[in-house]
Design goal:
Order of helices and strands: EHEHEHHEHEHEEEEEHEEHHHEEHH
GO cellular component, one term: cytoplasm
Strand content: 15-25%
GO molecular function: argininosuccinate synthase activity; ATP binding
Shape: elongated
CATH superfamily of the largest domain: HUPs
Distance between the termini: 75 Å
Strand order of the largest sheet: 3-2-1-4-5
CATH class of the largest domain: Alpha Beta
Structural class: alpha/beta
Number of domains: 3
Helix content: 40-55%
Number of strands: 14
Largest sheet: 5 strands, parallel
Main location: cytoplasm
Radius of gyration: 26 Å
Organism: Actibacterium naphthalenivorans
Enzyme class: ligase
Oligomer: single chain
Length: 406
């Protein structure tokens, strides 16, 4: 690969990406444009701007993408009830295509011929960033310093930082107890004290949720309104996507909801242990399933459940911009045409349970399911023929087997 002239770097302002910024300048002699996305990680981003200015970034982009993140990425994913390996709500995975999208757009706007990221060669994020980048611009150069440089230890990183006068926070001079990735959907903690999957995660790892044992002793009820599969209100108050998820995070976190200790199979082949907190997403998933129970036909619901693992795996592996993900999304979105109504959840000590659901587009008919007199709405005699027809092939098999035994 020829040396890039201008690189757009996904920049957090932390030690690793600050070192990458300087490394790009010294290794390639190129201009570096920084891009910092506010995805609701809860950190002040202005220090990142000042640090990038100090280090000679040729242009600096800091953007609030919270609404776009929830509206165009989180909500479409939740229409599918997506869970990777049956448990993980894909909080890190779903943020990467949006960051990549903006990296490519900024590269085009600034005339950059390359983009760079700080993901390591062991993880999933390198795959997600780069698959998305190539899907959006097949000619873009992608630079992954962790796969190229010889700064292979924390000591070497600190030596490089000091040599190049890169500010190092005092708490970074020791070994960090664990690494954290955060956005409006979740927090993800990995490494160090969490690397032994036999050991319980220390309580200080959790940042968004109280310990369920310490949660309020009284349950709280919350009503979430849906329109065509997307949440639109809490307790009758209409909210924007990001505002709504922020409120759900607050409610779930207060009741210790959304903790997950998971050993997952990474796309690159190894297993890793992570601690995830997805309080608002856990409420959203439970409520969405609740409204689908009365508005989604059995056949449609079961088909969705069959394709969900494949859909979730595509997102986990970085194929958000693939044609197969878009095809599955079209199917999923079609299923949501009548998923409109309200769900009441009960929040208590780490659990969120659906306790009520109603909709003007409900398929639930009390007249048909009642144990009281149904006034002819359903003729129970019809069930006999239904059962006989469905039993025919089973009876033929049993007759054959009996004949062979005889």
């Amino acid at each position: 690969m020829s040396a890039p002239k201008k690189v757009v770097l996904a920049y957090s302002g932390g030690l690793d990406t600050s070192i990458i910024l300087k490394w790009l300048q010294t290794e390639y002699g190129c201009e570096v444009v920084t891009f910092t996305a506010d995805l609701g990680q809860g950190e002040e981003l202005e220090p990142a701007r000042k640090k990038a200015e100090m280090m000679g970034a040729s242009d600096i982009f800091i953007e609030d993408l919270r609404e776009e993140f929830v509206r165009d990425f989180v909500f479409p994913m939740f229409r599918a009830n997506a869970l990777y390996e049956g448990l993980y709500l894909l909080g890190t995975s779903i943020a990467r295509p949006l960051i990549s999208k903006r990296l490519i757009e900024i590269a085009e706007a600034t005339g950059a011929d390359a983009v760079a990221h700080g993901a390591t060669g062991k993880g999933n994020d390198q795959v997600r960033f780069e698959l998305s980048a190539y899907a959006l611009n097949p000619d873009i150069k992608v630079i992954a310093p962790w796969r190229e440089w010889d700064l292979t230890s924390r000591t070497k990183l600190l030596e490089f930082a000091e040599l190049n006068q890169i500010p190092v926070a005092k708490d970074k001079r020791g070994e960090a107890p664990f690494s954290v990735d955060a956005n409006l959907l979740h927090t993800s903690s990995e490494g160090k004290v969490l690397e032994d999957p036999a050991q319980d995660a220390p309580d200080y790892v959790y940042q968004r949720t109280v310990n369920p044992e310490d949660a309020p002793n009284e349950p709280e009820f919350v009503e979430i309104g849906f329109e065509k599969g997307d949440a639109i209100s809490i307790n009758g108050q209409a909210m924007s996507p990001a505002t709504l998820l922020t409120k759900l995070n607050e409610l779930g976190g207060k009741h210790g909801i959304g903790r997950l200790d998971l050993v997952e199979g990474r796309f690159v082949g190894m297993k890793s242990r992570g601690i995830y907190e997805t309080p608002g997403g856990t409420l959203l998933l439970e409520a969405h399933r609740g409204i689908e129970q009365i508005t989604l036909d059995r056949g449609a619901a079961h088909l969705k459940d069959q394709i969900m693992p494949q859909y979730a795996e595509l997102i986990y592996n970085g194929f958000w911009f693939s044609p197969e993900r878009e095809m599955l999304q079209a199917l999923i979105d079609k299923s949501q045409e009548h998923v409109t109504g309200t769900v009441r959840l009960k929040l208590y000590k780490g659990l969120a349970r659906t306790v009520g659901r109603w909709s003007d587009q409900s398929l639930y008919s009390e007249e048909h399911v009642t144990f009281e007199d149904d006034a002819g709405a359903y003729d129970q005699k019809d069930a006999a023929g239904f059962i006989k027809l469905n039993a025919l092939r089973l009876r033929l098999i049993a007759m054959r087997n009996r004949r062979l035994k005889g």
